[in-house]
UniProtKB/TrEMBL annotation:
Name of the protein this chain belongs to: 6-carboxy-5,6,7,8-tetrahydropterin synthase
Keyword Membrane: no
Family: Belongs to the PTPS family. QueD subfamily.
Organism: Paramagnetospirillum caucaseum
Entry keyword Lyase: yes
Superkingdom field: Bacteria
Keywords, sorted A to Z: Lyase, Metal-binding, Zinc
Amino acid sequence: MSTFRVRRRIEIDAGHRIMTHGSKCRNLHGHRYVIEVECEAAHLHPSGEQTDMVVDFGFLKHEMMRLIDAPCDHGFIAASADAELLALFAPQGAQDWTESILAEVRENGAALTTRTRMGTKLYVVPFQPTAECLAKHWFEVLKEPVRERSDSTARLVAVRVWETPNCMAEYAPG
């Protein structure tokens, strides 16, 4: 069966650390992430503003900017289990800060805050912020908005996350 496929990419700058890594990635560091989404459809939109499209590239960009760029660009992505790192970001004298962040992660799958010691953006996730896990997370975040924005014509099939020009992870559920 033939399908149409489209891809859209954005780039963000964000810091992270892999707390259990046996080498240098255990240190605080950052990446110029490139995030690419791929959508497919068996047929193109027959009418309307997306006529003859799988999904409008502008719609994809809007959702990627809203759901990936806005919470993560020029911020820090942290694992909820990384107590030492969260302690670095916790505002002084805010005893309930970590618990409220962890509760939001449990409830929503992630937590975004700028109520940090230095007022910086912090995005907390319930996994190690590896490229593989970020690809899966962003797939789950984007899956439904892509379906809705395409009037159920398009289906998100893969998210690719490059940490460097040479290192990429992909999540594409079977």
